[in-house]
Amino acid sequence: MNTNGPICLFDSGIGGLTVLKKLANAFPNENYIYLADLARVPFGDKSKEELTNIVNEIISWLEKFNPKAIITACNTSAALLQQSALSSQLSALISIIDPVAKEIASSNYKEVTVWATKFTIENNAYKKAINKLNPNIKVQEISCPKLVPMIENLECSIEEKTKIISEYMEQISPSSDALIYGCTHYPHIDEMVKKQRNIVTIDPADAVVKEIFARDVARNVSTGRTPSISLYTTAQKEKLERFAKLYLCGDYKVGLVTLKALV
């Protein structure tokens, strides 16, 4: 690990900007590199073999920056890495799932619900991570394929959003103590979720921030400095620029990266 290197994050698209924003707010003295693989979005419907190739390519590219940390700001990729030896081989790699699983496992929750993408749910990523540490916690996992398109559609009406969110809210167990956002897009609808039900909502990005603190790899928190943020994408530069301006509240130039195409 290079203690002077940047903190790198990657996602299939713009969802991981929610993680980047919280890290940049917590550690403004750091340099950040964010890669969105918009040429191959979404990751959630890829086969395990396809996704393995994609994640290996991305991590190899990010390693060229000699980073102090590589964060999988993508729950689908984190779910894949649970099944891979890569996560144990790279000390700088931080999964978005593992830190929050530790917090849940040591909490007083008896039952939690997870909203996530198809791949994350089919692989029981959160259930495995939480129950490995605490088998007494009941974990309900719900696939929510309509949420990401809804969130990215800036023309979607409040009425339509409410209807879609209600569809998934109705599936949550009445005895669930908390709702985990198992996709980095979902924190954007937190207010709407809470209007429909009085439930504790958990953004795994908060646990990632605590993990960075615990590892003591980031510079001390300070105010008065704007973080250095470099954004890259494999396609759709305009899309990443638009959402970065919206979510990060700044104008960012986006670099275009060409990664090896899947065979």
Compact summary:
With 263 residues, this protein is α/β, with parallel strands linked by helices. The chain contains 12 helices and 10 strands. It has helices spanning 17-26, 48-63, 75-81, 86-89, 97-105, 118-122, 125-133, 147-152, 158-169, 190-196, 204-215, 237-247; strands at residues 7-11, 31-36, 69-72, 93-95, 111-116, 138-143, 178-182, 200-202, 228-233, 254-256.
Structural overview:
The protein is an alpha/beta fold and 263 residues long. The chain is built from twelve helices and ten strands. It has a six-stranded parallel sheet with strand order 4-3-1-2-9-10, with helices on both faces. Strand 1, helix 1 and strand 2 (31-36) form a beta-alpha-beta unit. Helix 1 packs across helix 11 (204-215) and helix 5 crosses helix 11 (204-215). The longest helix is centred in the first third of the chain and has 16 residues, at 48-63. The mean pLDDT is 90.
Q: Which tags fit this structure?
A:
263 residues, 12 helices, alpha/beta, six-stranded parallel sheet
